[in-house]
Amino acid sequence: MRAPSLRNPRSFWDVFAVLCGYVLLEYIVLQLTGSFLVEQELVVVAIAVFFWAAWAVYRILVRVESAG
C-alpha cells in the first residue's frame, strides 16, 4: 500500500485518505483546545482542503478521460 500523493493524486483513495486525515486532525485539535481563534484557523484550512480536493478530483477525472 502506498501513501496518498498530494501533488499527483492517482485515485479517489488519495482524496479520501487526505480528507479523513484532515477530519481526524481537526477533531484532535478541537478536543485539545476548543478556542475561538483555533476554530477560525481551522475554517481557513478547511477551505484550502476543499479546494485541493476539488482540484484532485478534477485531475483524476481528466486522467481517466484521456486514458479511455
How are the SSEs placed, and which strands pair?
Elements: H1 12-32, H2 36-67
Describe this structure in words.
With 68 residues, the protein is mainly α. The chain has a domain at 34-68. Helix content is 78%, strand content 0%. It contains two helices and no strands. It has helices at residues 12-32, 36-67. The mean pLDDT is 88.
Task: Using brief descriptors, characterize the structure shown.
single chain, 68 residues, mainly alpha, 2 helices, 78% helix
Give a short synopsis of this structure.
The protein is mainly α. 78% of the residues lie in helices and 0% in strands.
What integer value in Å does the Rg equal? 14 Å
Helix content: over 70%
**Helix-strand string:** HH
Strand fraction equals under 5%
Low-confidence stretches: none
- The chain-level structural class is mainly alpha
Largest sheet: none
Distance between the termini: 25 Å
